[in-house]
């Protein structure tokens, strides 16, 4: 294994600096828009930023095919996600999550927001992007495991994009107001978009993991999966959805995360 540690270390600094610039620009945009939920649109773009930095910096230090995969996969995922969230948030007020968070602020609310929202999301993105950062400097040729990762990534994008589109159509019908979606992929998992998100990052990890030291970045997809299931993803959304009519029955027959056939007889 010929891993260029010096180039890798330099790229960490470049990636961190690039993320800081994007986050500061997002903070300025949030002040103009009057809502910190702008950061939700930027989330996918943080990984696009890291992927571009690694692609530029890794030239001549890695297997060319892996280098392109670690650019294209995060790029397609991140741009789609940013477009979807950005378009969905146009004209909407602040996300209640950020109102609740900033209600805890002591002292300058802007400094609190920078620390508790922007810095935190930047650090999380930096950790989760580890397979891109490390894999970008692996010089061994792409092997079967990496192609398995591409397939897992594709499955994830399908679940995420299809789940988002089905939810958008459901919400667009006034007759569904206040109801729980139970069509399409949502019949098999209560969170097809979150499941897809997790698959995307397990897939990117596998692209890096078919060669050392990429395998040690397994903490990245684990972190993303925990965020989606136990952190700010499904847990908070389900707390909100539990107030809707029909939620108890839906939750009883539908898998929480991994897609499974719905139960015929909901358990008590």
Describe how the helices and strands are arranged.
Blueprint: H1 5-33, H2 38-57, H3 64-89, H4 96-102, H5 109-128, H6 130-135, H7 144-172, H8 192-209, H9 219-229, H10 234-241, H11 247-253
Helix pairs in contact: 1-2, 1-5, 2-3, 2-5, 3-7, 3-8, 7-8, 8-9
- The overall strand count is 0
Return Rg in Å: 20 Å
Summarize the main sheet. none
With helices defined by DSSP (H or I, 4 residues minimum), what is the helix count? Answer: 11
**Number of domains as seen in the coordinates:** 2
Give the N-to-C terminal Cα separation. 55 Å
Outline the structure in words.
This protein has 268 residues and is mostly helical. The protein folds into two domains: 1-139, no CATH class; 143-268, no CATH class. It is 68% helix and 0% strand. It contains eleven helices and no strands. The radius of gyration is 20 Å and the shape is globular. The mean pLDDT is 91.
Summarize this entry quickly.
The protein is mostly helical. It has two domains: 1-139, no CATH class; 143-268, no CATH class. The protein is built from eleven helices and no strands.
What are the main properties of this structure?
11 helices, mainly alpha, globular, 68% helix, 268 residues
């Amino acid at each position: 294994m010929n891993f260029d540690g010096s180039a890798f270390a330099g790229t960490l600094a470049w990636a961190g600096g690039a993320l800081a610039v994007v986050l500061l620009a997002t903070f300025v945009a949030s002040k103009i828009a009057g809502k910190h939920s702008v950061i939700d649109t930027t989330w996918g773009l943080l990984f696009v930023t890291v992927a571009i930095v690694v692609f530029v910096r890794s030239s001549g230090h890695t297997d060319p095919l892996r280098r392109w995969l670690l650019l294209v996969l995060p790029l397609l995922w991140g741009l789609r996600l940013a477009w979807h969230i950005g378009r969905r948030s146009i004209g909407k007020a602040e996300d209640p999550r950020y109102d609740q968070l900033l209600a805890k602020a002591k002292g300058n609310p802007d400094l609190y927001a920078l620390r508790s929202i922007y810095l935190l999301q930047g650090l999380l993105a930096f950790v989760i992007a580890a397979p891109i950062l490390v894999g970008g400097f692996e010089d061994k040729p792409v092997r079967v495991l990496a192609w398995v990762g591409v397939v897992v990534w594709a499955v994830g994008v399908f679940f995420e994009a299809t789940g988002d589109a089905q939810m958008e159509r459901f919400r667009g019908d006034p007759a569904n107001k206040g109801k729980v979606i139970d069509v399409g992929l949502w019949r098999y998992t209560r969170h097809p978009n979150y499941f897809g998100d997790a698959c995307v990052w397990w897939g990117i990890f596998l692209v890096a993991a078919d060669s050392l030291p990429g395998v040690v970045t397994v903490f990245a997809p684990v972190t993303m999966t925990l965020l989606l299931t136990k952190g700010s993803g499904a847990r908070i959304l389900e707390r909100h959805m539990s107030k809707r009519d029909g939620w108890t029955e839906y939750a009883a027959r539908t898998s929480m995360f991994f897609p499974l056939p719905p139960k015929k007889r909901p358990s008590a």
